[in-house]
Design goal:
The protein is of the alpha/beta class. The chain contains 6 helices and 7 strands. Strand 1, helix 2 and strand 2 form a beta-alpha-beta unit.
């Protein structure tokens, strides 16, 4: 199978999704629970492409393509990454749990029940859940997840950007899974 590598100019100007069937996707799913910032959404598409995630689930108030700000931040990877919209995150989780056997659903959130992100033994298939920039992942959604992980915060700020947190956890998961 040929490796496709396109730079930002090629992605922006090229034929959308040309050769997308040549990319071997990993059993990684990303779920956005009411993520509002279109820059974050577009950056998550770019991140999903970087790790060859199978699909992104956009839920609730999360904006969807086509959206010029998402497209710009994603450098057009919205054309390469499969995605689906659900009115609620709970609906998306129900579908995932019934259609993907042995799926591990991992929330990235600060919570009294969370584990350090680097102490979890990640395995495929996995769905990583991130939440709203101000409110985080809703309690109802957290209760539907198998595990909650969080990143340590040693400074005065209580949290990292949602896309940054997802990126750190995604690459930790890839390292753990040895992909």
């Amino acid at each position: 199978m040929a490796m496709i590598k396109l730079n930002a100019r090629q992605l922006r100007k090229g034929e959308p999704g040309l050769g997308r069937d040549q990319i071997q996707k990993k059993d990684i799913y990303i779920l956005l629970d009411n993520v509002l910032d279109t820059y974050n959404i577009g950056s998550i598409f770019r991140l999903a492409d970087a790790v060859a995630a199978k699909k992104i689930y956009l839920c609730g108030e999360t904006a969807t393509p086509p959206n010029s700000r998402i497209k710009k931040a994603s450098i057009n990877t919205t054309e390469w990454v499969d995605w689906e919209y659900f009115p609620t995150t709970i609906e998306a989780l129900k579908k995932l749990k019934t259609t993907i056997p042995d799926l591990s659903i991992v929330a990235i959130e600060q919570d009294s029940d969370s584990l350090p992100y680097d102490k979890l033994d990640y395995s495929l298939p996995v769905c990583l859940v991130v939440g709203n920039e101000s409110l985080g992942i809703s309690k109802e959604v957290l209760q539907s997840c198998d595990t909650i992980v969080e990143l340590p915060m040693a400074g005065v700020n209580i949290s990292l950007n949602v896309m940054v947190s997802l990126g750190i956890v995604l690459y930790q998961a890839l390292e753990t899974i040895n992909l």
